[in-house]
Design goal:
The chain is 27% helix and 31% strand. By secondary structure, the chain is α+β, with helices and mostly antiparallel strands. The protein has two domains: 1-40, no CATH class; 43-85, no CATH class. The radius of gyration is 22 Å and the shape is elongated.
Length: 85
């Protein structure tokens, strides 16, 4: 059968410090033992938070610009974002 993996879970090393993701999986030949993998996801989480904040700020600017039309395009000229203006 296929080995079943546990969903990753976060382990905070210290308040305001590093965030480590822990993933476990049973060894294929012996169900008595698991393999544990730790991965530092601090920077990834900080980048995701900063991206959410930038997205929310941008959405707020678009919503607040009720008397001006704002249109955003990608480098090919395709409209990617707009407000109702």
């Amino acid at each position: 059968g296929e080995t079943e993996r546990n969903l990753p879970r976060d382990v905070v090393v210290a308040e305001g410090s590093r965030v480590v993701e822990l993933t476990t999986a049973p060894l294929p030949r012996d169900s008595l033992f698991n393999v544990m993998a730790f991965r530092d996801v601090t920077e990834e989480r900080e980048n995701a938070r900063a991206l959410r904040e930038a997205r929310d700020l941008f959405a707020g600017v678009l919503d607040a610009a009720s008397e001006q039309a704002i249109i955003g395009t990608d480098p090919s000229g395709h409209i990617t974002v707009f407000n109702n203006g």
